[in-house]
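ARCHIVE CARD
SHELF: 3
SLOT: left
DATA:
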Amino acid sequence: MIMIALMALAVWLYLILARGAFWRCSERDDWAAAEPSAWPPVAAVVPARNEADCIGESIESLLAQDYQGPWTVILVDDDSSDGTADIAGRVAHRDEHLRVVRSRGLPAGWTGKLWAIKQGIDVAATLPQAPAYVLLTDADIVHAPDSVSRLVAHAERNALVLASLMVKLHCESFAERLAIPAFVFFFQMLYPFVWVNRRQRSLAAAAGGCMLVRPDVLRKAGGIEAIRGALIDDCALAKALKAHGPIWLGLTERVRSIRRYPAVADIRRMVVRSAYAQLSYSPLVLAGTVAAMALSYLAPPLVAIFGSGTARVIAVAAWGLMFVAFQPTLRLYRLSPLWGLALPAIALEYIVFTLDSARQCMRGQGGNWKGRLQANVSER
């Protein structure tokens, strides 16, 4: 038991001291405002499938941007059946900056979202002023009026080929407070933003809700076609683009998701959709991940509660480091520090979701998103 406690403590010492300080949540869009010498043309591409509940507010926020250069919003309706395109169409009649495109069906080997994005980028390329940047954003995302201006200025100032913001996720229901901050914490642990933002490191990641992309560099990287079957498309895109220039990823409170997850089952569906894809559909990687999470998150509280002597002291220290590491993320979401004590139970929830994701993929039901099964789509 002492050995297990020591191993868990060693893991948390490594995570705290040597994993890019991911837990500090230090990479944010809090830079001082600065304007480029000229504002380049920008087009936003919004793929939307059955987003009637969110699309109106999302599109209105894009049309309310204070961007001073040429600005176009392209909504690609991905075979919606709930009137998403009609809602956007009514907005389009009132604002010349919005174009609504109907998807032309889904070719084999493509995920629905990436096929919609490709069509939107193709339309953007035909605009009178071809965009220097394309903003890829989801249909449930709401932007502050200055978000695009700030992101473009940041990209111009640092010659970025990709600038991405991890949007502030909705976090009000009990299920959301239980799972959302941990989701952000785990993502940062997997992809420390400081490492992602260093040109000399190969680690690449992005957050799909808000990605500002250089389309000329995207073409050099093979276009959206190069990642057409990727279920975790944001990180696949970041990897492709980082080979051609610097990228940047950070947290924000200016851009937020309005998608709600009222119950644990809603969170489960979100995680199950892509968790096994993150593990490359490998049973071996799955086993290793579950074992690592059990050692890191479950062993400390179990040994602290049921152990004794030196083992208990070491386990309490490991649990304490876990508690401390989670605090900046909890502050970001304005939650009580006491949620840090629940991180082991939350991690167990994610272990169960990940196993369920693997089970569904093995049964040919993986990657389910609004009626589409998309896991391993490139293989079918």
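SLOT: right
DATA:
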Amino acid sequence: MLRTHYVSEIKPEMEGRSVRIAGWLHEVRNIGKISFMQVRDHTGIVQVTAKSGEVSEEIIKSTEMPRESVILVEGTVKKNAQSKAGFEIVPTKITNLNPLAERIPFDVTSKVPAELDTRLNHRHIDLRRLETTAIFNIESTVLGSFRTILSKQKFQEIRAPSIVDAATEGGAELFSIKYFEKTVYLAQSPQLYKQLAVIGGMDRVMMVLPVFRAEKFDTPFHLNESTQMDIEMGFADHNDAIKMLVKVASGIESDVMKKNSADLERLGVKLEKSKVTVLTYKKAIEKLSANGHKIEFGTDFNRENEAMLQSLCGEMLIIKEYPTALRAFYSMPNKKNPEISNSFDMLYKGIEISSGAQRIHLPDLLEQAIVKRGMDPKNFEFYLTAFKEGAPPHAGWSIGMERFTMKLSGQHNIREASMFPRDRNRVIP
């Protein structure tokens, strides 16, 4: 390895030790006979101080290289109470590992703000910004926490295909692709496949995978390719799935608070433990109507409604028992009132981040639901057959990873939380 330490691994008590750090030249200031270099790697920034007379003239000259040069610094750790880290590095050798051949398109220090589209056009540069690094540090915690929490609950991670023969949601537009001699589609959900895994006896499954929706979105809340964190659990109903969703979402939030405190501080976000509120769709309608948002029963919530519900009920809100007509065809109708479904959504900080339901596991009822939505049961023959061969009651949900990360990190545009976002206009980089 070129380096002996990452920046975050060096401490003041290591004074006198020789170290090698590798990264980018973040900033440089030359004051008289002293050069102050800020060297950055993905863990942080350290000050490298070169004083004329204490280091060679070759080292002094090397500090004149442009910002964002990729460098290797060999030197000695020295305590410095004036440095934010409590120490600095006195260089014995500075090597430019790859002299810049192109001008950096915007200021990585963020002292001069750049437009989001400009940053996305040069995402490899944008990832060097400490703020962008912080967002994806948080996203990494979200993914790791999701897997860890569910593994402890005896969930097994599986994979599902991204190429499917027909729509699984019945409503969203699909991206069609040529697949040898036929036309197939990019999956808008892994729904059918995680159900098949439960029917196959795996009982509790989880997955993280990309999904694709061909709607012509033009909002800060939607992507055409996004990442879902899904579960399905056998011998369970929607109330069981809700309990698991609360455990996972609350656990992820807690892990981010604990593991990413420095990243949250970098982003200026004060994250606090959210109180979880659960109420029915009917109660949500009543609360909105009582506060000036007149909504007819059977209408879905818009962004203003969701924001109002957050202010009334708290930052982590589960709404259950939606009208059956509003939900996917495979959502189980309530036994007492088939017009109501055993379904639910989770709102977090004013936006929907998760949706789920108990699924229809009875083949006759499932076929009726497919026909009622204007779809052809023949396109779901393999799916229906599985339910005729011993399907247990089951339920599940999906969390939108980018939406959850966006809210946890205090962002206002979902593209900030997608490393290489795909929307209706962007297919590069």
